[in-house]
Amino acid sequence: MTPLARDEAIEDLADPYIAIDATARLVDYNPAAETLLDISGSDIGDKIAEIAPAVATAIQHGEDELTLSSDGTPRHFDLTISPISGPVADQLGTQLLMREVTAREERKSELALQNEQLNRFASVVSHDLRNPLGVIIGRVRLLDGTTNDQDDIDAIERSAVRMENIMTDLLELSRAGQSIDETEPVSLASVAADSWDKIQQNGTELDMQVPESVTVEADRDRLMHIFENLFRNAKEHNEPPLTIRTGVIPSETANKDDKSFISFFIEDNGDGVPADDCDEIFDHGYTTNPDGTGFGLSIVEEVVDAHGWSISVSDSDDGGARFEITDIETGN
User: Fold this and answer.
1) So what does this thing catalyse (predicted)?
2) Which of 74, 185, 239, 275 fits a disulfide with 215 by CB distance 3.0 to 4.6 angstroms?
3) Pick from 76, 80, 69: which is nearest to 10 by CA?
């Protein structure tokens, strides 16, 4: 049988390549496929399901990835399946190119394990430290107003509360950048409103400009982390009265690959971000507030990255800080 699609480029490919005819019989392969699938010239004309059952199943179902075992070790491949067409557009067969991505998949597994270990560590540290801190804060508050050493009592309470805040932010930061496997259509206005309700609003007003009809594809809980931390960041770095505004950026609405994308902003009329600090504000531990933990904006950036979005900071029209989150797929 004359091999189909024979070409020097295919022969020299490092990636395994095979071709089958319209009856799913092997008609061509390159040296890389010969080594991987243990095939030879005598297999030409045989059913691919008899030669390599897993490969046959992947072709039949149009799968885009495949894992094979080599000497007991898993090897991972990305698959490219395409038709072989004749001169009158009849499909003569199918060709398969297998690009090995074992190193990538192993790295993903390592990162997943590291994330799991980090989660366990953060949870244990948070739990083991919060219990004694809770005792300290509780006892200090019982002593409040009953001793002449009120300044010392206040200092102890501030330090204990600060430690508690740091632990909360560290735990949140350890989870913020984890990959997001599932998203759902989420009302942007609803998330903004719920996030606003969770912060102390003393002297701060929210100007909600997000239409109720706008939905985005997101992990709702982590999207709330973005709003909560940006709301809290504005409040903690500015004196009241303060107005925080959030809305959709009309000019950034776009369609790509039959999908619709939008952007939204959160801004305030406070003091803004010093120009020299714009490149540093997302760094772990960065803060200009002596009572801040320096993790809030790091959490925001991690959540944005995990969604595949982008974030930038600039000045608002009122001279405050303006954060723009872009490249967000709509849920409509």
Assistant:
1) ATP + protein L-histidine = ADP + protein N-phospho-L-histidine
2) 185
3) 80
